[in-house]
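User: I'm writing a tutorial on reading structure tokens. Could you give me a worked example: one chain, its sequence, then its tokens, then a sentence or two explaining what the tokens reveal?
Assistant: Sure. Here is the example chain.
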Amino acid sequence: MSFRRLCVGALSAALALSAPVASARAQDGGMWQVNVAGVPLSCVDHYGTPVRIYVTNGLNNVGIAARTQQGQPIVVLNPDVFARFSPTVQVWWFAHECGHHALGPYNSETNADCWGVKVMRQQGLLHSYWQLDQFARELASLPGSPVGHLPGPARARNIANCALT
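And here are its predicted structure tokens:
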């Protein structure tokens, strides 16, 4: 799947989550597109199904990819946690969560990490070694997790390697 189907529009000025995104809440029924760090983004899953996006402060994580009880793919984002990261990492978090759906049977935390950075690079959203280095340094401080997230330094190396392949 190409990132062109994930990312709609061109890169604009680097901003935190825009007002329309920050004001939306999960109970509003979700959105098909959000503006993350000045970039309008949308997502489709492995089967071509549009992914509904919810934004809520009630999530104790940066984001999750899940399915509703009816089997519809969703991404839930927490703008308060997003705000702790640089604009580049904010876009990557969205791409990572979308990657969980886009990868279908190949879904894993490591594959979603890789998918997210590859599509950012393909779209020109990650365009220099300096930017990749800053991005990797920011991720190096993240902890690992029991659900498959590599510890920060290993995760940063893996993502940097993916961006270069």
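What the tokens reveal: Confidence is low (pLDDT under 50) at residues 1-27. The first strand starts at residue 34 and ends at 36.
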